[in-house]
Every structure is written in structure tokens, then in C-alpha cells.
Write a structure and sequence with these properties.
By secondary structure, the protein is α+β, with helices and mostly antiparallel strands. It is built from 7 helices and 10 strands.
Length: about 230
Amino acid sequence: MSEDIDRHVLRKYDIVQKLGKGAYGIVWRAVDRKTKETVALKKIFDAFQNATDAQRTFREVMFLQEMAGHEHIVTLFNVLKADNDRDIYLVFEYMETDLHAAIRANILQDIHKQYIVWQSLKALKYMHSAELLHRDMKPSNLLLNSDCLMKVADFGLARSLRDGTQSTHASPRTPFRRHDSACHTIANIWLATAPCPYSHETELLAWGVRLNTSKLSCHVCVLVDVCGP
């Protein structure tokens, strides 16, 4: 799990700053040497070490490529393999922060919260219209820029209902993060053990639970208009 960056990647991108590191990889802010555009460079460790990790990586790339161009889905610019044939690099559009960080910083006004909820529902409607379930809609996976534009990221747990997902149960494999609240953990456990199949309705309900535990509770009522009685 080296933080070193392969030379062929450094020939394409200038590294500006390390943004974060987790169990699955590390992310840097970088600049495309050709276009001069700021991007997020993500190195995934041991992306193909087993079937589960390989499928997660494949789904992330496949679904993002299929949804390229939607205003509320993060854009994947490039995919680069590592010299060791184990790691992989993904190049995304750069977003300044995420909803989890914005909530912790207590910088969101009501108008921002309403706008974020509205954008997240637009993204869900688009994904569901393609029979796609994200299955990990949580604040840290909703990226924000300085204009409060929201984009959904991290499709490693996503599933297509066209592949028969409607007959399966949710089974999130990502470990609970230390900064997750108890209510977020309860929501994840509920998704993993719910007796009903994972569906559009289940995902909307789960997202409503997370909104309610993320200091956006006064705006969850928007879901009523979307879901109906």
C-alpha cells in the first residue's frame, strides 16, 4: 500500500496536495499537465487482489462511464493502471469538499440544505430511472464545490436491478468509519439486515434516515412529495 506514484502517472499530472487516505486507497489534488485542469487523483490499493475488490473496482468504473455527463454524478476522466499490475489510478473532476465535512463545519444555511437535498433526489431519480441502486448514499459520498453543486461519488457498492438485484438483500461491505455517527451505523445495519429486498423505495428510505441524522432533518419532508404516501 505504497503512497508512491508511478512515473507514467506523474508525466501526466502534477501532484499538488494529498487530500486523504483510507483503507482502500489515497487521493491527491493534482493538475493535468496538458489541460491545466485541477483533478482528483485516486490510487486504489490492490484493486484486483480478490473477486470482491475486483468487482467493486469494475463497477465503479463501468457505472461512472455509463453516467458520464450528468450534472449530479462525479465525472471520471481517466483510468490508469499501475506498474505493479495490482493498483489502479482513477482521475476524477475535483470537488472542494463533501457533505459530511460541510455538516461538521456547520457552514450550511437552510437554503444550502434544501438545494443539496433537491440535487441528491435528482441524482437518485436519474440512477433509478436506469434501474441502478447506489446502495451507499451517505454524506461523505456527496461531493460539493464552492457553488454548492452536489455530485454523487463512490459507486463501488452499486448494483443494477437488471442483473437481478431486486431479489437480493443489501450487504454493504465497507467498514463503518470512525467518524460515522451511531445513527449512521444503525442505518447501515438496518440496510444489511432488512427483510425486504433492496429496491428504489428502500434506498429512498435509507437516504431519508441518513438525512434525518445529518442535521438536515427539517428537509426530509421533501421526500414525501417524491415518494408519495
